[in-house]
Amino acid sequence: MKRPMPIFTAFLILGIIWGSLSLNTPWFLAVSLFAFAVGFVFFKFFKLRFLILLPCLFALGFILCFNRVNFSDNEYDLFCASGEEVALNGEVTGTLGSGKIIKTDRNVKIIVYADRDLFPGDVIILKGKLRALSPQYNPSDFDEIQYYTCRGIYYKMYSPDLEITGSKKTLSYYLYAIKTKAADALDEIYSEENSAILKAMLLGDKTYLTDEIKLLYKNSGIYHVLAISGLHISLIAAVFMYFFKKKRHSIIIMVFLALYCLFTGLSPSAVRAVIMMWVLLIGRMSGRKYDLVSSLAFSAFLILVVNPLYLFDCGFIYSYCSVLGIALFADPFSKIADKVPFKNSIVREHIFEATAVSLSAVIITKLVNMYFFYNFTTCDFITNLVVLPSVAVVVVSGAASLGLYLIGLPLYRLFALAASLVLYAYKLLAAAVSSIPFSLITTGRPVFAFSLLYVLFIVFLCFAFKFKRKSFALCAVLLLALGIQINSFELSKDQVTFLYAGQGDSAVGITEGEVFAVDGGGTKTDPNEADEGTYTLLPYLEYMGKTRVDRVFVSHIDNDHIKGIYEILDQIEIGEIYLPVGDYSSELYTLFKEKAAENNIPIYYLSAGDTVSESFTCLYPSEEQANIAADVNDGSMVLKASVGEKTILFTGDISKTAEGRISDANIDINADIIKIPHHGSKYSSGKEFISAVSPTLAVISCGINNIYGFPSDEALETLSDENVPVFITAENGAVTLKPNKKGIKVNTTLP
């Protein structure tokens, strides 16, 4: 067979995917036996002997991944569960962001965040609270477990007491020392912003990049230049090959590339690029022809055998999809470009060819962007025409200025000026592109059907180029159009999600095609400090592909309800805001009104009996009830919302006293779903109130291990007596309810 390596890698990947599902042994045996049977048939009857390896590779992928996914240390698990301080012996093996990777004496890696600087090779004693990795409470949250476990890390520790008992002068120690010295030198040479960018581009350290720069580069489609990838590795190899032209010198280049990869942190994209460059250099020495697809598959095979969980890492997926896109589409797009009637050969060779390569690199990564970042850029293949050729200037000038500065030659200023000018041009370009309408399209995370149809779109596009059939191209376009329609339809269905917002309330829903939010959570007291709005509510809206919230309801002005809404007032389009009637006075409320006015968002005050469209009715408080409320909690808005075929009762933080006033007013509070008042406090959720609501199910919003003991045993007992199933965000994570004629479909982020 001409290219066996991609098939070998594909079966290894299938085994890894199967292993990640953590299926039981009988299922694994059944599928494995089937795979072996298929392999035997091909081997026996079709004489394709290599195919007997395929079930073996499938089993290997399963075993490698299953062991990683289900790794656990019983002693460390007990430490995490007890919450007591422990003493651990270990050695620093590397850095990850602002944390240090510690390999303990039990051969388990943990991530440690400490104020004290540590070097690889330091032998230390840690004293602190060992913690398990945090699960993903909301579907749009950072997946801490996935990120760390694919790097072999299973526990974490914050601000421990440290004692350095020794130090081993390993290779990692010297590389880290060089890296630290280089970072300090960049701080001396460049501005703070440019220094942070060059640390990312030359040293592989993104720790110092500001959120503003990250967002600017992402929204303009040039964020990839900040990562050590094939572009950087190819450039370095090209420089070395210019000076070391003999074939035997390839070994020197290979060693340097390996050291540079270790120096910059062994990111998946860098490791992939180095392995592929090694294959190229080995082929150079042996006189063998280089095959891009086989080299790409071989590098993936090696990485996944060492660490199978990298298959689910964003950087790994993005890197391989971009190169795969080039392998599949660069040549066909170039042939199309050749047919464009343009006489200038320089423009044809450079501009058109570069456009073809740039377009082919992004065609598959669009799906990756949608899945991990919920959006994609439309002008990135154009911006890359300017950026990619000039990256060499930045890398070479930056490296030259760094080297000259370290040896004390003033000439470094000239190279530093060149790098700074190009980086300034990048900033202007990124800002200009970001300001273009529809340059960034928020899509939400694609549903499975869309992802499948997009893959089929890629397949049919490949067929169209290979067989030169317009019918295949038409099928590809139709599949993409169908996928877009399905994705839009699924993300616009009537539903409501009760987010995990710590010790606060926040819900986002869709009814009759309009988006609404009830409260936004919040734990921070400083109005300027980022909180649940920035880290929970806004990411979830993007996850759902929403760029506008038509109506926002704030039950009352306590921080744990209003703070998150306050944060997003100038970050997303909001149609209207509704508050309950009453007299309010707080610093945050004053700032809230001012920010709403600055963004031209009207605020309306609802009292009992008021309706908003046909979907929302305020049941409490009336002006009289608001005036006699003991506190802002008892003045919370009680809102009945119609979502699809069902009704939901949002109750804020009312107490049993307010519940009694509602009952006395003979208000119809019957609803299919209830958000339990005041996070499940024992002073709320009276039996009479719950009986009057008569819900099908209940949701309690509260934080894990909160100091208030929410939800209370009394509230849970009342719900149990009324036979009401209850979902608790501290235990289940975000709770998504999708009402329909048959009932209510419930999805939780945590099982």
Structure characterization notes:
With 751 residues, the protein is of the alpha/beta class. It has 26 helices and 23 strands. Strands 14-13-12-11-10-9-22-23 form an eight-stranded mixed β-sheet. A seven-stranded mixed β-sheet has the order 15-16-17-18-19-20-21. Strand 1 (85-96) and strand 2 (99-104) form a beta hairpin. The chain starts with a helix and ends with a strand.
Keywords for this entry:
751 residues; alpha/beta; eight-stranded mixed sheet; seven-stranded mixed sheet; 26 helices; 23 strands
The total beta strand count reads 23
Low-pLDDT stretches: none
Quote the distance from N terminus to C terminus. Answer: 45 Å
Can you list the strand order of the major beta sheet?
14-13-12-11-10-9-22-23
Q: In percent, how much strand structure appears in the residues?
A: 15-25%
* Total of DSSP H or I helical runs spanning 4+ residues: 26
Output mean pLDDT: 89
Class from secondary-structure proportions: alpha/beta
Largest beta sheet, briefly?
8 strands, mixed
Bulk shape: globular
CA-based gyration radius = 29 Å
Helix percentage range: 40-55%
